[in-house]
Design a protein that fits this description.
593 residues; alpha+beta; five-stranded antiparallel β-sheet; five-stranded mixed β-sheet
Length: 593
Amino acid sequence: MISREIIDEIVFRNDIEQVIGSYVTLKRAGSNLNGLCPFHNEKTPSFTVFPGTKSFYCFGCGSGGDVITFIMRAENLDYKEALEFLAARAGITIPDDNDSPVEKTIPRKRIYEMNMDAAKFFRSCLFDEGYGREAMAYLHNERKLSMATIKHFGLGYSPNNAWLLTNHMKKLGYTDDELVTGFLCGRSQKSGRLYDYFRNRVIFPIIDTSGNVVAFGGRVMDDSKPKYLNTSDTPAFKKSRHLFALNYAKKHCEEQMMLCEGYMDVIAMHAAGFENAVATLGTAITSEQARIFAKYTKKVIICYDADNAGQTAAKKAMRLLDEVGVEVRVLKIPGAKDPDEYIKKYGVESFKKAIGESKTGFDYQLDRIISSYNLEIAEDKIKASEEATALIVAAYSQVQRDIYVRKAAEKLGVSAEAMKADVDRQRKKLAREFRQKELSDAKMSVKNLGNRTNTEAAKHIRANANEEQLLGLMLVFDEYRRDAANGSAGISVDDFVTEFGRRVFVTLCELENSESGFSQAVLNQHFIDKEFDLIKKIEMERRQLGRNDQAVFEACINGLKQEKRRIEQSGEDISAQLQAARAHLQKKKNKEN
């Protein structure tokens, strides 16, 4: 069986826009792409690719999924054949069953256990009067961190000794292969002996939203290079798919999140009361991280350093966040190189004021456009005006557009009336295209009123609605899936009414509790095409809703339980259905074993 890590890498390396674009002519429509569906005949495009979520969906025939699902249908391949097809395309070698790499033999749960023991070791070193005196002084005196903040983030210290952690971890029973694969140790090419990867650095544990220590960052206490060392990818960690401090920020980010460059910026902001701050892990923001933001918040304020590198990174962040539909603002921090320094110099209240004065994405991009042209030259002014017009057209509100037109016209030195006429002309063109698509979608929707995949949905409308909302939350949010899978959410397969809902619930829980963990790419091998289409539809509907907090999750569970009781009290017989579902799942397990 192909490992989850390899499947994720295959999906990651095969850009869905490029893959589908080789089969379908796609046209940009905002942050998404539209085209004629390759799976049914149509004259008006109803097929949409969502780069932000690496998925596709046809509003006409209901086909949907990821890049693997698309290749399965486009090339008429089964799941494994589609993976092999995409692996060859990306230049990935799928190892034979008898040629498994070391990392395949080490479960992610073992990595979690190892990292937790390492985090305890680093913490004990920091609090040791001998080993940690210099590091504690650095955190207290130079970084101005309180003991409460140090403990809250689980900060630690790696002594300047090449074998201290290695020897400690070996005493706990961890093997050389485990320590190297988990990136806690390196191996000498000359002697083959292990050595500590992190040495003489303050240690920042990276904790996921489930509370697992998945990786570490290490910072020097002087100006030596490299300033930071970070855990490389392991079976339990992909740095492009995590955010530092998200485990705390997720509780405070419904309205907005703050995106910082470094660990210390985030810690300083949390200590100052800005608990919605997170940071990428030593790299520029990735598309995967942008999708994480889209899961948790509506708006992101970029708080990058004021230098050129920081501003270049901010441009990329704006583009990726815009692709997943997140509102973006950019924070200006005059008189300081980063948020940490600004808060220390000017205080919390001044920083709050700066947040309130952060620039909108439009203002930031307009300034960028103006700075790119010489407005004294007519041709440059025309090009700048065209780019500004395209920005304004994208604004939904008429008030916004009016304000943007006046602002852009004034800065560009052109007539507001002329610019407004250009904006109106472009919007009318877009409106015609939208009405054509809307009419097409409505026609297709009528054709698909009957749910032939979950035939019990029509019989148990309210129960099915709760089931779909609950499953949608589990599909989109890791923490809801984890709570349901470990039983802490108070929901079980016996609470479901429809056989389809039960099968999806059980599969999600089984994948979550497996050694490799849940993966969207692995999910579709458990269902036939039409079933996975419905699962994708459930997920998409949940993503489009604005509120997805704990109260909504609990309401879905309570609503489903109430409907189950009502059905049982009314005498509707679903016990036979439940028995059949269990028999189906047992038969599937027996076949796999």
